[in-house]
Amino acid sequence: MEYGGGGDDAPDGTRWIVLVVRVPSEPSRHRVAVWRELRKTGALSLGQGVWAVPDVPLFADGIGRVLELTERAGGEAVSLAATGRGSQDGRRLRAMFTAARSADWAEFMADCGKFEAELAKEIRIAKFTLAELEEEEQSLERLRRWHRDLTARDVFGAPEAAEAGERLKVCVAACEDYAERVFTALHQVPEQRMPEEGRREPGEEPGR
Fold first, then answer.
1. d(Cα 202, Cα 98) in Å, to the nearest integer?
2. DSSP state of 208
């Protein structure tokens, strides 16, 4: 089984790879692995076991991994180069694919909201530690990687992409603000206090 492109140009200029995938129901881990790879690749579900992606090099590696996982599980997969029969079909596929990307962007922005709320909570309770900062920076890096992946898959440009980019900038600024608070807290000089042995009660004479 090989991933391949080709075919005449579609009326709207887009060609598609359609995958027909069948994986044995047991053990279930194989079906889950294939499904996760399809989701990770950004494939559009067209029905039970039928998926589609635009026929561009970006998706080649992901489709190759899906075919490999399917074969390893003892299943069957067929990849077809396809176009819509008319411009209406092509537009419909583009709209469906972009709607899936819109859902991805909505999920991404929801996680941005969770990240901002987490930082606000740590500031509210004054939890300014290097361990917490490292954890938040790792969460921010995950958001950055996710944003890069979604941007690459969003080949037709979902309307939510611009807003998602702005939300990521807000997250970066919030994390930088938290980092400054952490370093400020760590470098504060603690108030000097007299040793217990040298302290006197008010009115007490020295040496008593």
1. 77
2. -
